[in-house]
Design brief:
Keywords: Endoplasmic reticulum, GTP-binding, Membrane, Nucleotide-binding, Receptor, Transmembrane, Transmembrane helix. This protein is of the alpha/beta class. It contains eight helices and six strands. The protein has a six-stranded mixed beta sheet, with helices on both faces. The longest helix is centred in the first third of the chain and has 32 residues. The structure holds guanosine-5'-triphosphate and magnesium ion. The site of guanosine-5'-triphosphate has 21 residues, from helix 3.
């Protein structure tokens, strides 16, 4: 070990000395070469990053059970409604988008026992995530909805790939359904509470330990979707009434 570090030290010193010994012209050549090399590396990095983004064509439909994901999936892929039952397996279909490459839509089951496993399988290919919620039963389910949404948004793969996120306020045909703006502020309040409890729990469990999930928003400021590093939008829909116009517009913009 000692021998190795001595060797490195020798190499470093001799390199430094050799650079210092270069003439002014030679130094310029070295700097010029380093600059070109840096630009070359940046191009490679941008190329790889863009390729990664372009190759991600997946759209994950996620949300609690009964929020309407499978009905939305069948409207999008088969252009018709189907009678759906609680899904225990994912549905995958290809959606053609006008003047753009097709998207691969994945309907992830909402059941608590299986949803994480299916999401883990598809999350790295997600170009977009549609979080579907039932706008009528939200009062009752707010905690569960916020918890699931929090888990998805703070997932390390999601934070690093930064797919676009649409929170789809479904079942708007119900007269007592809440609109997207009200839902956004309800979720922001709930996510704020959740973030505080989660941060406290993490601090209590492992002081200075490794945090697996990403901190959402700005510390010392109430939670707001606008503060996230990924783009989150809200829209209304009713799969029952075949009103998926906002979703289709969003899918076109994401594709
Ligand atoms: N009124 C109304 N009912 C809807 C709407 N969308 C879906 N539903 C109904 O809600 C129920 C659940 O829909 P699914 O599509 O099976 O729900 P899901 O999200 O796939 O549920 P899981 O597979 O359990 O995760 C079905 O009876 C649908 O017909 C809607 O926009 N309005
Ligand atoms: Mg389903």
């Amino acid at each position: 070990m000692l021998h190795r570090s001595a060797m490195w030290q020798h190499l470093f010193v001799s390199r430094e000395q050799s650079i210092l010994c270069l003439s002014y012209h030679q130094q310029l050549v070295v700097i010029n070469f380093l600059c070109r090399f840096y630009v070359f590396l940046s191009f490679i990095f941008i190329f790889v990053w863009r390729r990664g983004r372009v190759s991600r064509r997946g759209i994950c439909l996620v949300g609690l059970c009964e929020s309407g994901k499978t009905l939305i999936f069948s409207q999008l892929i088969y252009k018709k409604a189907i009678e759906s039952f609680t899904s225990l397996k994912e549905n995958v279909g290809v959606l053609d988008i006008e003047n753009k490459a097709p998207l691969k839509v994945v309907d992830v089951p909402g059941h608590e026992r299986v949803r994480q496993r299916f999401f883990d399988t598809y999350k790295s290919t997600a170009r977009g995530i549609v979080f579907v919620l039932d706008s009528f039963s939200l009062n009752k389910d707010i905690r569960d909805v916020a918890e699931y949404l929090y888990t998805i948004l703070s997932d390390p793969v999601v934070s690093s790939n930064r797919p676009q996120v649409l929170i789809l306020c479904n079942k708007q045909d119900n007269t007592l359904a809440k609109g997207p703006q009200v839902i956004q502020s309800m979720l922001e309040k709930e996510m704020n509470l959740l973030r505080n409890t989660q941060t406290n729990q993490l601090e209590a469990v492992a002081e200075g330990g490794n945090k697996k999930s990403t901190y959402l928003g700005h510390e010392g400021k109430n939670f707001e979707f606008a503060d996230l590093s990924l783009r989150v939008e809200f829209a209304a829909s009713s799969a029952q009434s075949e009103d998926l116009e906002n979703l289709n517009k969003w899918l076109h913009s994401v594709a």
